[in-house]
Structures are given as C-alpha cells and as structure tokens.
Amino acid sequence: MKSRPLLLPALGALGLSLAALEPALAQDAAPTVDKGDTAWMLVSALLVILMTIPGLALFYGGLVRTKNMLSVLMQVFAVFSLVSILWVFYGYSLAFTSGGEGTLGAIIGGFSKVFLAGVTTDSTADTFTKGVAIPEFTFIAFQLTFACITPALIVGAFAERIKFSAVMLFTALWFTFVYLPIAHMVWFSEGYLFGLGALDFAGGTVVHINSGVAGLVGALLVGKRIGYGRDLMAPHSLTLTFVGACLLWVGWFGFNAGSNLEATGGAALALLNTILAPAAAGLAWMGVEALGKGKASLLGIASGAVAGLVAITPAAGLSGPMGSIVLGLVAGAACYFAVTSLKNALGYDDALDVFGIHGIGGIIGAIGTGIVAAPSLGGYGVGEYSIGGQVWTQIIAVVITLVWTGIGSVVLYKIVDLITGLRVTQDEEREGLDLADHGERAYNY
What is the pTM for the complete model shown? Predict the structure, then answer.
C-alpha cells in the first residue's frame, strides 16, 4: 500500500477521494483461493496420511516381537480411524474456533463448528498466521492428519503389554483433553501461546513433545514388559522398520512443507530443511554409535533420521538450510544418548523410544527454533528479532506443554485403568497381543 500516495493526483483529477475507493481496495487486498495452493495442501494431507498409515505402523511393527506385530498395526490404524471421526465431530471446532474472551478462550475453542456446522465447499479457512485463503474443507482435512498421528505416536511407548480397549479409550480422552487445548493454544490466533509469540511451524510442541511426554507417562504407569532387561526383545523385522522409516521421511514433506499453507518459496524452504536435518541427524547418530559400539547400525541411522525430522518440525519454514543441519546434528547425538544412557539410567521401558526421540527431539527443536529462526543467523523470523527473548518464549511453551501433557496424561491413564484396566494378563502378554487381542497371527508358518 506504499503506492497509495501516487494515486492521489489522478484521483483528484477524476473528482474522487481515496476514502471512496477504500472498500474496493480492501476487497482487492483480501486473499483469494488459489488452485495451486489448494492442490498442494490436498497432496500434503495425503502425504501425512502416508506417514501414519502405513509409515508409522510399519516402523513400529518391525520393532516389536513377531507375536505383537499385528497388535501395533491395529492400534495405529484404529487410532487414526477414531480420531478422524472425533476431529470432525468436535475436534476442529475446539481447536480452531474462538472460545470467547478470557482465560478459557485462550486455552480451548468453542462449539460453533461442531459436526462442521456452517462449513461448505465455498467457505474458506482463516489460516491464523499468513492470511492465506484455502477451502475450509482442505484445512480441516490437513489438520485432521496432525490430530491423528499424534496419539498414534504414543502407542509405541507401551507396546506389547497394553489392552486394546485401553488404547482406544485413552486415545479418545487424551485427544479431547490434552491434544485439542495444546493445538488451540499454539496455532489459533487467540491461543495463549500464540499470543506470547511462541513459534511452532509444524508441531514441535503440539505433536512431538505432546506425544513424547504422554508416552513416557504411559510407559511408567503401564509398567515394564515381562522379562524386560533380561530376555531378548530385539526387533523382529528391521526390513519393515526401514520401509516404515522411509515412508515417514517422504510423508514428512507434507507434514512440514504443507504447514506453509501455500505453494511458495516458504514451502520449498521447509521441504529442503526436511531433507537436510534428518540427513544430518542420521549421520550424527550413526557416528556416535560407531564411536561407542564400534559399529553403525541400520536401526541407528533410521532412528537418527526420525529424530532429525522431529527436531526440524517446529523450525521447518523458519530456519535457514545451514541452521537445519546444525539442529539435526544436535538432535541426532542427543536422542542417541536419550534412548541409551538416559533410559538405562532411569530404568523405564519405553518400548519404541517415543520419549527419547519425539520428546527429547521435540524439546531440542522447539527451543532451538528460537535460535535458528534468527535473521542474523540466516533464519526467517520476523520483526525486531531477539534470540534471547524468543528462546525464553520457546522455553515457556515447552514447559507449559510438558506440564499440561504430563498432568493430563497421568489423570487420564488413571481413569482408563479404573474403567478397563491398562494391562493385559501375564498369560496374554506371554502369548502375544496378536492372538490375545485380535485372534490373528502376523505370520503363519
């Protein structure tokens, strides 16, 4: 609008005023739906579905023992299905509509779009950060995939010993009372953490710290697997885990680059960072492991790559490429120590290292975003950027997420334990959850 003064002489000659044209100028300035942006967001939603089913399911499935393979596949698939329905029933409304003025409205949304009331093929979504106009159904579908993968990540922490009914009940409760408030606080324009200026491009707090802490709490409350620390519990198929890791990486491009909400250079930056950070993290994990154990493992480099994907998520569209490499290197090394030294020192049984990778990686990424987003370091933070001030804001967001998720998860696990019980019987655990819960075998020899 800096060109407006240049219009004044011409308007005067025509006997018009700038005020008379304000409505028309405002209309011209309003964002309009672009088919390219819409197509990109639809593809991004499909990519996130790919990273969940089959990506996450195969990654987790290969890591458990043969007798529990189907149970993990079933849990991820069923969680995805359940949350999809709950999202359109009330989840979207509570996450992305106004909850009114005051403290409550800063924590959770309202019920104005329950059952997607008022949403049509002509309605557009206010994307809350960029003013990009995309069809509301597109935005709903894209955010649905985030809501689905987050509780699906949790199931890896208590794999091989939890009741299927407990997983489903916990998922419904946790999605409602933990995920939705965090999503609203971080991503909605009236949310508390959004108002503080916390940066989370694609879900460092909302998805990864959230799921990582819930997984740790679950692992502690459900208890260790029978024979943990004594019996061999090696992954039954690293081949499937490798395939799952590759699908996760491919799907993550929708996760991160899709969060740009339009097909521009910002999406390209997020996509490039989503290549560089996991590549650096995988190499870092591999290097540290080789130094410590004398050999580099496939599981190690795959786990490191996932750690890098987690760490770059909140910074994907905010960090420069060099910053993403540094973030990946730090995350790869730190998460390696978290799933080896830290877990062994504390003695908890996080079966598939949900906290060690998603929790620790998410914390590193969320706090690190405040650094790598600095324009002075090649980042794309806006305004009068202060690294110290932004890092402090990021720490506040991390602490609030840790506390909200930690306390909320403890309460919800206890409720589920009272209603259905959390853990299968010892006989069922020894038999395997494939047969005990689902009456099937992954492999019939």
Answer: 0.92
Residue 365 · residue 357 · CB < 8 Å:
no
Q: Rounded CA gap, 145 and 52, in Å?
A: 8
Instruction: Show the tokens assigned to 12.
Output: 């005067």
Q: How far apart are CA 131 and CA 124, in angstroms?
A: 11
Burial of residue 231 (CB within 10 Å: 0-12, 13-18, 19+) is: exposed
Residues of the chain with pLDDT under 50: 1-27
C-beta atoms surrounding 248 within 10 Å: 24
Q: Tell me, letter by letter, the H, E, C secondary structure of 362-424.
A: HHHHHHHHHHHCCHHHCCCCCCCCCHHHHHHHHHHHHHHHHHHHHHHHHHHHHHHHHHCCCEC
Please return the burial class of 417, using the count of CB atoms within 10 Å of its CB with bins 0-12, 13-18 and 19+: middle
Residue 321: is the preceding peptide bond cis (ω within 30°)? no
Cα–Cα distance list, 426 to 130, 178, 356 (Å)? 53, 31, 27
The identity of residue 241, as a single letter, is T
Distance CA 387, CA 381 (A): 10
Query: What is the helix (H) or strand (E) element at residue 118, kind and residue range?
Result: none
Encode pLDDT of 148-207 as tens digits.
Answer: 999 999 999 999 999 999 999 999 999 999 999 999 999 999 999 999 999 999 999 999
153-162 burial, b if ≥16 CB within 10 A, otherwise e? bbbbbbbbbb
Q: Rounded CA gap, 317 and 393, in Å? A: 18
Under 8 Å between Cβ of 211 and 174: no
How many Cα atoms sit within 13 Å of 277 on the Cβ side?
A: 37
3-class SS at 124?
strand
Pairwise CA distance, residues 305 & 286, whole Å: 10
Collapse the DSSP code of 126 into the 3-class scheme (helix H, G, I; strand E, B; otherwise coil) and give the result. strand
What 8-state DSSP symbol labels residue 116? G
Q: Report yes or no: 215 and 153 within 8 Å, Cβ to Cβ.
A: yes
Does residue 242 contact residue 306 with C-beta atoms inside 8 Å? no
Give the residue carrying structure tokens 């499937």. 240
Helix axes 180-187, 136-154, angle to 10 degrees: 130
Inter-helix orientation angle 238-257/298-312, to 10°: 20
DSSP 224: P
